[in-house]
Amino acid sequence: MKKVMLMLIEALAKLGLDKLNRALTFGGVLVAVLAVSSGAVKLDHNWFSFLFRWMHVIAGIMWIGLLWYFNFVQIPSMPKIPDEQKPAIGKVIAPAALFWFRWAALATVVTGLIVISMKGMGALTDAMALGYFQGGYFTYIGIGMWLGLIMAFNVWSIIWPNQKIALGIVDATADEKKAAARVAMLTSRFNTMFSIPMLYFMVAAQNVG
To answer: Are the beta carbons of 170 and 42 closer than 8 angstroms?
Structure first.
């Protein structure tokens, strides 16, 4: 099995699998072929609702995955990196990660709002009102939604503006960069804390409610 998989990987490498855009294109083609051939495509309201839910999940994986990368990998590793190597993180890796991080946060919010709105504006209102906290789907999805909205607000209004200062994308003094880095880090920690109950209630809405 391992040899077959390696042969397949090498064959795809000749088609440009080493390039990210090619890998994403191949993945898109693969899901389209498998979905159509298996009968998992039905151009009705339910399928489009599912399509946006799938997009919501993908965006959420990108967003929370990068949030956890920052908190589980990059931030704890920075003190261990020699000073002469740190500019590579601040000038190359962090800005690229933050680009996907903030836009994935926005995409997660937009697709999530589309999913709940496709159930009807009443569903969106019920979710925003936490289902009047009577338990069940609208209470759980509402809690998850509000936690996610607060996290996304933090990304765009606190983390990203302060990261621009900390990384030198905008002009600032050394003290301003240090202060901004601390605010961005603490807000990122806050979002990591919020991500745990947010994911719980998002999943609970589909499986417990």
So the answer is: no
